[in-house]
Amino acid sequence: MAKRGKNYRKVRATVEDRPYALGEAISLLKSASWTKFDQTMEIAMRLGVDPKHADQMVRGSVVLPHGTGKSARVLVFASGEKIREAEEAGADHVGGEDLAKKIQTEGWLDFDAVVATPDMMRVVGRLGRVLGPRGLMPNPKSGTVTPDVTRAIQEIKAGKVEFRVDKAGVIHAPLGKLSFSDEQLVENTLSLLRTVVRAKPSAAKGKYVQAMHISSTMGPGLTLDESALAQADA
Length: 234
What we know:
- 33% of the residues lie in helices and 20% in strands.
- Strands 7-1-8-9 form a four-stranded antiparallel sheet, with helices on one face. It has a three-stranded parallel sheet with strand order 4-3-5, with helices on both faces.
- By secondary structure, it is of the alpha/beta class.
- It has nine helices and nine strands.
């Protein structure tokens, strides 16, 4: 295990071994930040699902009310009139076979999100092994395979976050920058929690949300108590 720096160890010493209320945890993360750059606050949620079974897969998306603090670079696979529509909506890259070839042969990945019109999935489908493991593969359930490219681009630019449970049953997602106000980070967090809870598969049995932790880019993780779920449900 890599040795932690003195700043991290100093901050870690202030964290108590107990669950924190959401507002309290956010305040602690912000007060404990020592870096010169604006760290991202992230959440990890362990769910009571078995993702090996298709009927227990949890995935979805949410437009955070205050965004992520990052301007996402959007790649759109489109043809015909949809190319102009995507460009006018603010897409950073628009194309078809040319971009697919660039990704396949050059390993080009200078984008944060991918949108595709349904007719272009015949091209995008070949990129599954590259885009899939990076969470970039367009999917109808997340609204990134759609004829309405304008809406998809606008949502991503506004702070849309996609989530998908991993093999261990954990969801990871960004919640905004530490420079956001406490209220903004609370609202972003509750919005994500609300969406994840609503995405509970009918096949999931027992306790659904088993643990929640928030952390900053360089800081330690803090366990959240279950009052956050009650806030999200309010």
